[in-house]
Design a protein that fits this description.
Layout lengths: L4 H4 L58 E3 L7 E4 L1 H6 L11 E2 L16 E6 L5 E4 H7 L2 E9 L5 H7 L12 E10 H8 L7 E6 L9 E5 H4 L7 E6 L2 E2 L9 E3 L12 E7 L6 H5 L10 H6 L17 E6 L16 E9 L6 E7 L7 E2 L1 E3 L10 E3 L3 E3 L11 E8 H5 L3 E8 L22 E4 L5
Parallel strand pairs: 4-13, 6-20
Antiparallel strand pairs: 1-2, 2-3, 4-5, 6-7, 7-10, 8-9, 8-13, 10-11, 10-12, 14-15, 15-21, 16-17, 16-22, 18-21, 19-20, 22-23
Bound molecules: ligand MTE.
């Protein structure tokens, strides 16, 4: 039988960590005035406990009901509806930040967070164990805005064509926050990697059936400060919430969210890439002919290094009109315009260089207006006790989503069957017309379409 949080509390557990809601906090002080974090009602907090969650933090975590569960009760995987996510603006409040957990959330005593230990070992001259306090006090503290995107974002469209191995994500499997921490590159220099090291392996502390979650980065990328990988303990000026890796996570800007290991416990410098189960069996785009059955039966496909996903590819979505939105014709004089809105992003630090809209099935395209709120942080360094240095000046790369708008005449909208969007990044990579269906249903970035049904 399902347990309620109060039943679970009778089990002798350490004190849970309840992060204060953003609403209870003073607005962060050093943000440019354009930015406001929406405050969220406390009464929206909910908790659902599965028997598999007993002894974990899951039963304790207040979760916003606007985060829609995608996988039943366990583990917690959720996204906000696109209208809520988009409506929240550039920064996603932690309550609406998408969650991708492969298992139960480790229970960590908030009072002992400073003593959380990160072991760094392997091919390096100075293997060490650093506490969270060491990280905070021995290295430069920085804050940067980063959009995390799950490789499964928009998988639902692939599952409609043919069920993949993964569960449905709408277009809300992404979120943006200010992440505070220290540069991974500086911590690596501190331990002096030695030859013939090639990879840096990261391991979380979640207990999964095939061992902890782990994955790796190329050492040359991890040492590149411009790529801005962070060992991070705070999100939007507050300690990470348990769902997002409290007390410490890796944040890898520009790459799929699966590389940003949560509840980070161990870093190993190695000649080999990570040997963790999910490093091989997740976050891969296998060739299209390898359907779920072959992927299950023929294990070698998973170990082919060519199919790993690192950087995000260009992608975009329409937030307005929403699917199933009803437009009231009485509010629309024929000469009026309707503003289409949405988001776009690219990977590897590349910018989106154009967003285009079509309403004739891709025969012709129209240029949308792009805004990059992230640019407000560029070349400006602030200093603050909460954020350390709020600073993008170490990097010329672009790590966040952008927004686009397009004013369409109501008459044209009335005469259309569908509107669609595509974007291109500065390497001239363009979203494809056709879906690249694959067994894991990942990296779905074909043109995003919203059907228009004319009523009456
Ligand atoms: N780290 C650990 N330890 N365990 C996990 O299940 N999920 C990964 C990554 N890091 C995961 C993890 C995946 S697949 C994604 S998309 C991101 O975390 C999601 O981060 P978020 O839940 O903070 O949005």
């Amino acid at each position: 039988m399902e347990k309620t949080p109060s039943e679970t509390s009778s089990v002798n557990l350490p004190a849970p960590f309840f992060p204060p809601s953003l609403a209870q906090q003073n607005p962060p002080r050093i943000l440019p005035p354009q930015f406001k974090f929406p405050s969220l009602p406390q009464e929206s907090a909910q908790s659902t406990v599965d028997t598999q969650d007993i002894g974990s933090a899951d039963g304790w975590i207040p979760r916003d009901p606007r985060l829609v569960r995608l996988t039943g009760k366990h583990p917690f995987n959720a996204e906000a509806k696109l209208r809520d996510l988009y409506g929240a603006g550039f920064f996603t409040p932690s309550n609406l930040f998408y969650v991708r957990n492969h298992g139960a959330v480790p229970l960590v005593d908030q009072d002992r967070a400073d003593k959380w230990e990160l072991s760094i070992h392997g091919l390096c001259a100075k293997p060490t164990t650093l506490t969270l306090k060491d990280l905070r006090t021995k290295f430069q503290v920085v804050t940067i805005p980063v959009t995390l995107v799950c490789a499964g974002n928009r998988r639902k469209e692939q599952n409609i064509v043919q069920q993949s191995l993964g569960f449905n994500w709408g277009a809300g499997g992404l979120s943006t926050a200010l992440f505070t921490g220290v540069y991974l590159s500086e911590v690596l220099e501190h331990v002096h990697p030695t030859k013939p090291a090639k990879h840096v392996i990261f391991e979380g502390s979640d207990k999964l059936p095939n061992g902890p979650y782990g994955t790796s980065q190329l050492l040359s990328w991890a040492r590149d400060k411009g790529k801005a990988m962070l060992l991070s303990w705070a999100m939007n000026g507050l300690p990470l919430e348990p769902d997002h890796g409290f007390p410490l996570r890796l944040v890898v800007p520009g790459q799929i969210g699966g590389r940003s290991v949560k509840w980070l416990r161990r870093i190993e410098i190695s000649v080999m890439e990570s040997q963790h189960h999910l490093h091989f069996h997740d976050n891969k785009v296998l060739p299209m002919p390898i359907g779920p059955e072959r992927a299950r039966a023929e294990k070698d496909w998973w170990y082919d290094p060519r199919y790993i996903i690192r950087e995000l590819s260009p992608n975009s979505a329409i937030a307005r009109p929403d699917h199933n939105e009803v437009l009231d014709p009485s509010e629309m004089p024929p000469d009026a315009t309707y503003q289409l809105k949405g988001y776009a992003y690219a990977g590897g630090g590349r910018r989106v260089s154009r967003v285009e809209i079509s309403w004739d099935d891709g025969d012709s395209w129209n240029i949308a207006k792009i805004t990059y709120p992230e640019d407000l942080f560029r070349d400006v360094a602030y200093s603050d006790s909460v954020y350390g240095r709020l600073d993008l000046t170490e990097s010329d790369l672009c790590f966040c989503w952008c927004f686009w708008t397009f004013d369409m005449s109501i008459d044209t909208l009335r005469g259309s069957d569908a509107v669609m969007v595509r974007c291109m990044d500065e390497s001239l990579a363009l979203q494809p017309c056709d879906m690249y269906w694959n067994a894991t249903g990942m990296m779905n970035n074909w043109w995003f379409r919203v059907r228009i049904c004319q009523i009456g």
